[in-house]
Amino acid sequence: MTWDITGLGAVSSVGADARATYDALCAGRDGRGRVRCFDPAAYRAGHAYEIDDRGADCDRPLRATGWLLTAVEQAIADAGLGDDLGDIPVLVGTTLREQRSVELWWRGGPPVPVDELHFGTALRRRFDVTTSYTFANACAASLYALGMATDMIALSQADTVVVAGTDSIAESTFAAMDRAQTLVPDAARPFDRAHKGMVMGEGAVAVVLTRAGAGRGSAAARLRAVGLNCDAGHPTAPDPAGIAAGVRDAHRRAGVSPDAIDLVMLHGTGTARNDETEAAVMSEFFADADADRPGPLMTAIKSGVGHTLGGSGLLSLVMAVLSMRHGIVPPVIGLSDPIDEAAGLRLVHGTGAPARIGLAQVNAFGFGGINAVAVVEKA
Question: Going by DSSP bridges, is the β-strand pair 3-12/221-230 parallel, antiparallel, or unpaired?
Answer without folding.
Answer: antiparallel
